[in-house]
Amino acid sequence: MAALVLAGCARDTGGGGAQGGGECTRNAPPAVEPAQAQPEPEAPKADASRLKVGLAYDIGGRGDASFNDAAAAGLDRAVAELGLPKENTREATAQQGESEDAGTSRLRQLAEQGFNPVIAIGFNYANGVKAVATEFPDVQFAIVDDDTVDLPNVQQLVFAEEQGSFLVGAAAALKTRTCRVGFVGGVDSPLIQKFETGYEQGVKAVAPDATVDASYISPAGDFSGFNDATRGTEIASGQFDGNADVVFAAAGQSNQGVFTAAQESGKKAIGVDSDQYNSPQLTDVRDVIMTSMIKRVDVAVYDYINAVAGGTRDQLPERFDLRNDGVAYSTSGGQVDDITGQLDAYKAAIMAGQIQVSSTK
Hints:
The protein has helices at residues 2-6, 67-81, 100-112, 126-135, 161-175, 190-206, 229-241, 255-265, 297-310, 340-351; strands spanning 10-13, 53-57, 89-93, 118-121, 141-144, 154-157, 180-187, 211-218, 246-250, 268-273, 289-295, 327-329. A seven-stranded mixed beta sheet has the order 1-8-7-9-10-11-12, sandwiched between helices. A five-stranded parallel beta sheet has the order 3-2-4-5-6, with helices on both faces. The protein is an alpha/beta fold. Residues 1-8 and 16-20 have low confidence and may be disordered.
């Protein structure tokens, strides 16, 4: 079954280890002077006690152990550190299979109820944000993972996913024993392709002869791939059966299926968005999660609330990347402790501009 699932939706990036079992030839990371790779300073904390913040989650909402939980963590941090009253927050969640109008109505209700700012989590809200922000020009809006809404009261919170994915790709290449690794994306869309592209570049930077098997759970326009753990298991099992021994999953709640496949195969997986090793919902499979590509939606949500409170929206970064802690890799569980020096060297090279990570093939 797994082999049939892979047929027609998989991509194979060649390499000498494709037929399995051989050791990869591995490159050493470039050397970078510390002064060339300094992070950007953190903004001062503003007083958010007068704000009323509305948060519209994507499918899965708080508790998805991934993308939405990261956004929730940013809201929680604003409550804890910026004086934002918990009672001044409102959270609403998209439902599987709902219409676009339902998302627009959710945003409109938050604006009508006096929440300002209103933060939309996910590109599915793009048309809704455009419509409602036009209706409510005095309300501040933000949208995560979309840069198409160009209005003065809309902040685009987007990320350099390819940079964080490069680092976990390097980790996969350093850890693989078969010289073959995998990638499972939720939806074959430009956003998730950034994860695949960065991952492949990281693998190849370390092990040019390694093979990357890449597959997507659902095609473009079908967002069920983010919430289909069964298909995640099937596709990842096919990759493991094909001799991959590390698979990076960028598939929302479907990641749980990839982790199950890794556990059943005795192989390793890489999580996404949150530090998935520490997700309470994933305790039973945590030992297979070698690392996670952390997309710091929490940082973006927190920084945006802080900027609205302090009147410094113009100082927010155009893109959240390695320099401003927008993306990272996790070390929980200790499975990459032996290679953190090499991963941090690649991180420094990206921050210094010595390595340019492309977001497209």
